[in-house]
Amino acid sequence: MAQLRIALAQTNPAVGDLAANTDKLIEWTRRATGRGAHLVVFTEMFLTGYPAEDLVLRNSFVEASIAAAEAAAGRLAEAGLGETPVVVGYVDRARLAPRVGQPKGAPLDAAALLHRGRVAVKTAKHHLPNYGVFDEYRYFVRGDRLPIFRLHGVDVAVAVCEDLWQDGGPVAVAAEAGAGLLVVPNASPYEREKDDVRLALVSRRAREAGCALAYANQVGGQDELVFDGDSIIVSASGELVARAAQFTEELLVADLELPEASPGGPGTFEVDAGDGTVITVERVELSARPLEPYEPEPPVIAAHLDDTAEVYSALVLAVRDYVAKNGFQSVILGLSGGIDSALTATIASDAIGPERVHAVLMPSVYSSEHSLADAQELVNRQGINAQIVPIADIVTSFEKDIHLTGLAAENLQARVRGMILMGLSNQHGHLVLTTGNKSELATGYSTLYGDSAGGFAPIKDVLKTLVWKLARWRNAQVGLSSPFLRGFPRPPIPENSIEKEPSAELRPDQRDTDSLPAYDVLDRLLDDYVEKDMGSAELIAAGHDPALVARVIRLVDLAEYKRRQYPPGPKITPKNFGRDRRLPITNRWRETTP
Amino acid sequence: MAQLRIALAQTNPAVGDLAANTDKLIEWTRRATGRGAHLVVFTEMFLTGYPAEDLVLRNSFVEASIAAAEAAAGRLAEAGLGETPVVVGYVDRARLAPRVGQPKGAPLDAAALLHRGRVAVKTAKHHLPNYGVFDEYRYFVRGDRLPIFRLHGVDVAVAVCEDLWQDGGPVAVAAEAGAGLLVVPNASPYEREKDDVRLALVSRRAREAGCALAYANQVGGQDELVFDGDSIIVSASGELVARAAQFTEELLVADLELPEASPGGPGTFEVDAGDGTVITVERVELSARPLEPYEPEPPVIAAHLDDTAEVYSALVLAVRDYVAKNGFQSVILGLSGGIDSALTATIASDAIGPERVHAVLMPSVYSSEHSLADAQELVNRQGINAQIVPIADIVTSFEKDIHLTGLAAENLQARVRGMILMGLSNQHGHLVLTTGNKSELATGYSTLYGDSAGGFAPIKDVLKTLVWKLARWRNAQVGLSSPFLRGFPRPPIPENSIEKEPSAELRPDQRDTDSLPAYDVLDRLLDDYVEKDMGSAELIAAGHDPALVARVIRLVDLAEYKRRQYPPGPKITPKNFGRDRRLPITNRWRETTP
């Protein structure tokens, strides 16, 4: 057996900022070598950030990425770090003749091994995901090389992210080639309970590859995606050896006992990948002899967060990164006294600090007394900035010129509020946060250009029942302080905002239950229809009330259009609205009348 | 040689309305048999409409589509039309074991041959496009069968749309199998000058297949896509035999002289498709003996529209279908007296009739006298509905409560106008049309929730220089009447709206040229940057002013976010905003500072 100390750099890159990402590569490699690491593994497309979407189709961007990988190798050597091999993801291109339907310039979701001032060997993702949030057939051509580099007597293979999720391909070839360790840069977005799926998958693939597997995952918010880290190292038998924390940057260092490589020099050979393709294995040698035996450090295995803490952390990180990475200093939101805006304000306080959160209280003639009082109570408990702007006069000035009744009049109130927030945003540079939850967005209880006006929607993918659960959970953490929790001395959310009956307060004595079923009934139905894509007959067979099925499906299908114009927000389920569900606007399919 | 009269049904299906599409199938087949056709070919996914997007991932939808194809065969037979074979596109599914990354349920972009009350044979698209507006790896698995049916002694092969655009696959196999005619259902969206590309492509593929080729294309607006029809039939040598008109439904009937099939019965055999795959040819026999010789009808070759007429027709059709297919009866828009809203109103009048167009004139304190006069002149010339709602008092009522200056104050005016239009839309059910052009959207000269508020953006993909060109062209057609031109007695657009200097009129004496270069300079640069994806260095090398390149690129990249929240609009270039350009919002890549 041979020893190796491996460091996984679970980091938060900035999409498009190749210079900053390169600086971070140098800094984290220095930290890793300072801890005695023999090999450092960064995440998928770390130098460019992931996902870079259509930037990848721009020539100048791909050339800059290739140049950045080469420059990074040089800078590592200049910094005296050239002896430690570094695996890092970036975008490269295949040398293929242009073909109809192939992405322009044939980009690759690549990984490079940087060593002694140069790119020693390269690989690229073989399995391209093109489902859910992934569009990779649009962006990349398939990689067909598996590099295996010998480091201190251990044969180390490199695969990329999706290569773990599909059968055949690099994992099968790594087994065939007798690799002693498989390292995998990833950018695998968070979804509720994905951490359990991920460990089971990585364990299974390690057993298939017949070798230890090191899985380095990106962390951070990137538009609607939240990357949760949760990097892991498992043994060849699939046992968990080390794990990094969720939602935070971490350098995960672990000592591994690995099989010594059999003799055999560099070269290339082809292997049937078991998926209808052939992969070329490329062997290179960095150092043939095992290290002198040394005392291993005890491994770190971070505990998993429970489901509620996990979701809350994802939302906080998403807001923090959306604000910072887009160059905002502060946020503004409307605070109604209800639970949705209360939770959103609390997430914002936890994300960027209450001193950078600005609330506007915009009572109308239909607002209850408790609304303003509950909103002010939250302002006091959290110490956020607040101002009151009553909307009655502005609404009246519109109604003098145009006659509006019913829904049109309700929407007008919501739009006046949206305009006030946007005006203050434009004047002072705050990012407007919207406060709609997934249950109301799904059913269309939201006003286009009204409460949906804004730049980021923190609870867009949170069903109403989960809104309440998160609020209660957050209040129960009172006094605790963490990267995701501000140490407020009192529960940050007024109990009355949690307990009172929900109402939009757009007409006298309005209640959500006037027009919607109880939220526990509605949310179960939405989950089956939106997440599980069940049809009408299946929903009824699953026990949902037929009349409710018909009504809710109609609401959801008709709300699709509004959703398209809703701002992005963090994703915690497989099917948030927006890029996850692509339905035609002009469409006469009705699930209820097939 | 053998004769065959073929009818291509160039039709406008409704996405999701399987019942209406089936009714249309029966009706058009009756018309075709009435004209003596021996074979009728409908378009790609005609029964479901194209594109159905994520509906295809819903089990109930795919099952309904399969049932619709079978039911259609039965209904044709009941209607006495069962003897005439009908090729029609729909969605089927492959019987494949579920696999990670494969679309749920393995849907196929299929075509069925309906004959004597049953589905006689099926095929499915082999080449799946996944670029530009196409996401087909998300939706479909690849078809691997090429049916060849013998009809009156002629061997007819069936391929689907993209199969023509890529090398290898069904075209190569049709040649190998000795087909006498290749029929191809399509849903190929319009882009400027695509008609010329299409004819050249179809001619080349006919020569490769060594047989005549009949190309039936969808027509109609579907969200951002406009299908232009332009169905064509070419001979085995690639000569144009018949062509349908652009942008209108048409039954294209043509008599063909085709080679008689060599003897040989039904059965299947495998052919190397020349693209790394194997395709199974499936031969079936409907009727072995050639028809008795008959006198052919003279073929129809519709003339192509010139480029300006083509774009104008596309915009009119897009608006008409968006309105009708989404169930609206009327549209509303703000009329400023400027050229953008004047052209948009004219397109709307041509699309749905001036009696269903509602204009709101919303002068502010910064509006010039000529603005209101020019707008009223257009109202008079076209006879559209109009009302005047001055915005000064409403703006003042906002400014009493919140202090706004500069851009924030300019945006407020645009938003007050947006709210007035949305209020009237909610009250009366009109669809709001926005009036922004591509040059100003690209550079961010547009207010989120202001002039960008609305449901459809007719000139979203039209650069400002083309706006002027279309306006002059439309005025020059005065007196003409066609499906795309209302026979107005006077030029519908006031000359002053065309000739005056453009201004947003959001502050005193504002001119577009205060902040933007001349539009001919800007539009050339936008075309190179947006459509051609040139990087900064390339743009400068192409002769654009370096300072302007830096400034315009910055504007375009920063405007990306607004564009995401802009309503859909018809697409006339490869890269309209929205689904055609998918850029991260959170992104620090700046083309100007690589």
Describe the structure in your own words.
2 copies of one chain form a homodimer. The first copy, chain A, has 594 residues and is α/β, with parallel strands linked by helices. Chain A has 2 domains: 2-285, Nitrilase/N-carbamoyl-D-aminoacid amidohydrolase, CATH 3.60.110.10; 307-564, HUPs (Rossmann fold), CATH 3.40.50. Chain A contains 16 helices and 20 strands. Chain A has helices at 18-34, 59-78, 136-139, 170-176, 194-209, 307-325, 339-352, 369-382, 392-401, 406-428, 438-443, 464-476, 495-499, 519-531, 536-541, 546-564, and strands at 2-10, 39-41, 86-93, 107-115, 118-124, 145-151, 154-158, 181-186, 212-217, 219-222, 225-228, 232-234, 240-243, 250-258, 267-272, 278-285, 331-334, 357-361, 385-388, 431-432. In chain A, helix 6 packs across helix 12. The mean pLDDT of chain A is 94. At the A-B interface, helix 2, helix 6, helix 9, helix 10 and helix 15 of A face helix 2, helix 6, helix 9, helix 10 and helix 15 of B. Chains A, B: It holds the Pfam family CN_hydrolase. Chains A, B: Residues 497-513, 577-594 have a biased composition (Basic and acidic residues).
Tell me briefly what this model is.
2 copies of one chain form a homodimer. Chain A is α/β, with parallel strands linked by helices and 594 residues long.
